[in-house]
Design goal:
Length: 410
């Protein structure tokens, strides 16, 4: 997208506002499917939690993607977007048996990640095919907040518990149709991922009726110049070769599944905010914008780096800024960042704002959540209205139970 497009959107729809470029989503989807074109049955289930607007889910559906969901509400959003329940997989962690049963009764593929629920579900519904989430105990990334494969992780059933899984399967007579892993959000090293895949193949041999093996996600996209990016093409080549030979050994053409979130939508997103104030202190120039961690929490929560460009003055002389929000907390988006000269009223754009940005937004400080725009065929489509004051109050129950303190008689 051009700076002028972003500027025009901020002018038309106000700020702050999220913008998503459909073309980038489509090209990422195609890049991933191309990398695995030698696999007979490839299935990409888009991880809804990255960005859950119904228009985005419709776009994914039009591309042929299924959905990976973590709550019954995400399942319902997918169905509202027109996605067939059979095209949805439910991969929750720590949810109740009741919720899993409800989702299962909708015709959605269930993925179970603990022995207790596996036993209970299998006992009650031995005929429903179930996928099992394995924890291969491989750390695919360096950041402990986003690597979920380590030994103490709450995710998945440990590979050391395979004998227990097999006992439950045998006792209940349930049918395991898929094996799954998701080692976290940062595959830095293709070989580490291939190593984890070997563990998954080894596990898969224990189950005779598999339809698919789901390798989860964790594809890394660049957030700034020089960042490591998962080499999807190399990864595709290596895993395809190994997967195809495993299928031969297994005696069946299995489906190879992934559930990318960030890879598909991160780089398609821009978050636009307006600079309310430029404030000089003894050591720093602050650019204070009309937003905060209520709208974009990744920099504060994960220490994530998001590139910031001044779309009102892209060619201006560069200066150093700390970009901060308007929330009454320390809400620093960036420190000591080189940005073209900022004047109050300028619009700045945060890049990589497609994944885990709007979907993590809140109403903290009683601010409205932003509008969302889909840029499609060179046209801006409003896909979510900015909230209004009514949204802040509509679920609050007004009680009339307090007596006003009256002044003591003088
Ligand atoms: C969040 C999640 C994903 C998506 O991860 P990304 O890093 O955004 O690609 C995939 N699978 C599961 C089970 C998840 O919880």
């Amino acid at each position: 997208m051009e700076n002028t497009n972003l500027l025009a959107i901020a002018e038309e729809f106000g700020s702050p506002v999220y913008v998503y470029d459909s073309k980038k989503i489509v090209s990422q989807y195609e890049r991933l499917t191309n990398a695995f074109k030698q696999v007979k049955h490839l299935k990409l289930n888009y991880a809804v939690k990255a960005l859950s607007n119904i228009a985005i889910l419709k776009l994914m559906n039009s591309l042929g993607a299924g959905l990976d969901t973590v709550s019954i509400q995400e399942v319902k959003l997918g169905i509202a977007a027109g996605v067939a329940p059979s095209n949805i997989i439910f991969t929750p962690n720590g949810v109740s048996l009741e919720e899993i049963e409800q989702v299962s009764s909708m015709g959605v593929q269930i993925n179970i990640d603990n022995l207790s629920i596996l036993e209970q579900f299998g006992t009650k519904h031995p005929n429903v095919p179930v996928c099992i989430r394995i924890n291969p105990h491989v750390m695919a990334g360096g950041n402990s907040k986003i690597s979920v494969g380590h030994i103490d992780s709450k995710f998945g059933i440990s590979i050391h518990q395979i004998p227990h899984i097999l006992r439950i399967v045998e006792n209940t007579g349930m049918n395991i149709n898929g094996i799954h892993m998701h080692t976290g959000s940062d595959i830095l090293d293709v070989d580490v991922f291939l190593y984890a895949s070997e563990i998954l193949f080894e596990t898969a041999k224990n189950f005779k009726n598999l339809d698919f093996i789901d390798f989860g996600s964790g594809f890394k996209v660049p957030y700034k110049e020089g960042d490591i990016e998962t080499n999807i093409e190399e990864f595709g080549k290596k895993l395809t070769k190994r997967f195809n030979s495993f299928c031969k050994e297994y005696g069946k053409e299995l489906i190879l599944g992934f559930e990318p979130g960030k890879f598909l939508v991160s780089e398609a997103g821009y978050f636009l905010a307006k600079v309310n104030v430029v404030k000089q202190t003894t050591s720093t120039v602050f650019a204070g914008i009309d937003s905060g961690f209520n709208h974009l929490i990744r920099p504060m929560f994960y220490n994530s780096h998001h590139e910031i460009i001044n779309v009102s003055n892209p060619k201006g002389r560069e200066r150093f800024y700390s970009v901060v929000g308007y929330i009454c907390e320390t809400d620093t988006f960036a420190t000591n960042r080189r940005i073209s000269e900022i004047t109050e009223g300028d619009v700045v754009a945060f890049k990589n704002a497609g994944a885990y940005c709007f979907s993590m937004a809140s109403n903290y400080n009683s601010r409205f959540r932003p509008a969302e725009i889909l840029w499609h065929n060179n046209k801006a489509h409003l896909i979510r209205k900015r909230e209004t004051f009514e949204d802040l109050t509509k679920n609050q129950v007004d009680v009339d139970i307090f007596e006003t303190v009256t002044e003591a008689a003088s």
